[in-house]
Amino acid sequence: MKNHRSYSQNLRNNNRMINFLLTVDTEEEGLWGGNYKRHNEYTVDNIEYLPSFQEFCNRLGIHPTYFIDYPVVSNSNSRRVLQELLKNGNCELGAHLHPWCNPPYNEDLNFRNSYTNNLPPELQFKKLKVLTEAMVDNFGITPISYRAGRYGFDETSIPVLEELNYKIDSSVVPYRKNGIEDEPSFGLVDLNPYFLSYEDVCISGESNILEVPITVEFTRKAPDVFKKIYPSLPNLGIRRLLRTTLNLDLVWLRPSYSTVPAMIKLVDNVISNGTTVLNMMFHSTELMPGASPYNKTAEDVNNFLGKIQKIATYTKERYPANFNTLKGIPQFSREMNPTSTTSV
What we know:
CATH superfamily: Glycoside hydrolase/deacetylase
Shape: globular
Largest sheet: 9 strands, mixed
Distance between the termini: 27 Å
């Protein structure tokens, strides 16, 4: 078994370059109501909004990673859009598995089966193999990065990723607690990339899959014992009280969820604690007015983009920072090329 270096330990407490990632779950419309259908029953009109979004990213110097799912790769119009984006080399394509609309369809359509990790590993493999081969056939690339739809990820998926030659996962959401049985939960997680354990995806281990968690953390430093119990606190005003009296709030680096001031506090806190990779995420449907619960109008979308710009600009001006895709982060580059001396 491999004895991977602990990048988190090596990079912590050093004045290192911050790597800012923008990862986009690039998918069909209509998921917000929980009505699960097969891929040929969905539309992917929101993909037409990606070229203007990519131009926005180009102006800022951001290199997004688009995690695409089967309804997107199987649609000729969305393939055309993404093929054009790839020509300029300013983005990366990863795989995004929505099991209910990704063949083969050997499972029932229901809530439990909407989470990939609840499926037998053999079916997980078959579905991801279909998606991977479709990306190879239509884009001429072999994807190496992955995010599970609905964050449906646990240790059962690690051998599947390894067998299909994936190198990076970005499915882990720190502090996420399931509200309903069958939903995924994650605990206290190191925000710096780490190689996954075969027993627990929240800790480092001996697998070949580099985990790059979504950046979720508190707005100020808090003891680990408190962090562990926070997701289980009854939401009866306690969290609001902590926010108003102690300036302590749990925040996603996600512009649809969080305000600019809260995300700035988050960025400052995690960097001061040694984090060197910031992973902002959202869904492609949020770029299309009315296609998500968050951005219902064109004005909402513009405000949403303004949030991204403010956080990206703040990070770039406040810290030494690079904008990267997942495969461009130094932790991955050094693993693939151990003799590299690229500074981070």
